[in-house]
């Protein structure tokens, strides 16, 4: 069985869309790291259909194809108020409307795709509905700490997946 993102999405009605990085697309140049000619900007994300009891959201970007044995986390952000249902292109690393973890590059906030040459990589952008207003983790926390808090209590989540490949 091929577990694609659409098979992993929640059935609660939570949906996620992006103009910059639509589901099934190739990651757009502005979202790539500078070394690949990009601007290293997070894509716009819009969501709807949160389940009852949602008090905040988290967003994540994950590359399950990174050759690390455990994937690669490009972005983990949380404490997004329940009244917020979108993020613009280019969320700053220091943004008072949310809290961001240190990603697997070692930076706070979003860092775009920079896969090794070879097979295409999938980039899963997800929104997670949470039953708490705050996870209690501080800006710059290790992403594993934030992810544990997110995944252990999420009410629902959904994802969109884009791909990027550096030719060998």
From TrEMBL:
Instruction: Tell me what this protein is called.
Output: YbhB/YbcL family Raf kinase inhibitor-like protein
Instruction: State the organism named in the record.
Output: Brachybacterium paraconglomeratum
The record's listing under SUPFAM superfamilies reads: PEBP-like
Similarity section: Belongs to the UPF0098 family.
Q: List, as start-end ranges, the regions of compositional bias called Polar residues.
A: 1-15
Q: Where is this region: Disordered?
A: 1-20
Which InterPro entries does the record match to this protein? PEBP, PEBP-like_sf, YbhB_YbcL/LppC-like
Q: Which CDD domains match?
A: PEBP_bact_arch
């Amino acid at each position: 069985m091929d577990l694609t993102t659409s098979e992993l999405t929640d059935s609660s009605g939570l949906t996620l869309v992006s103009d910059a990085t639509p589901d099934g697309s190739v990651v757009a140049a502005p979202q790539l790291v500078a070394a690949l000619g990009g601007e290293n900007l997070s894509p716009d994300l819009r969501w709807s259909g949160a389940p009852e009891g949602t008090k905040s959201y988290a967003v994540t970007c994950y590359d399950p194809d990174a050759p690390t044995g455990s994937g690669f986390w490009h972005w983990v952000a949380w404490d997004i108020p329940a009244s917020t249902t979108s993020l613009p292109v280019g969320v700053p690393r220091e943004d008072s409307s949310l809290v961001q973890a240190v990603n697997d590059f070692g930076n706070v906030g979003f860092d775009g795709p920079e896969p090794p040459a070879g097979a295409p990589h999938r980039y899963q952008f997800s929104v997670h509905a949470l039953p708490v207003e705050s996870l209690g983790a501080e800006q710059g926390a290790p992403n594993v700490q934030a992810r544990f808090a997110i995944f252990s209590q999420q009410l629902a989540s959904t994802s969109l997946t884009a791909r990027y490949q550096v030719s060998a």
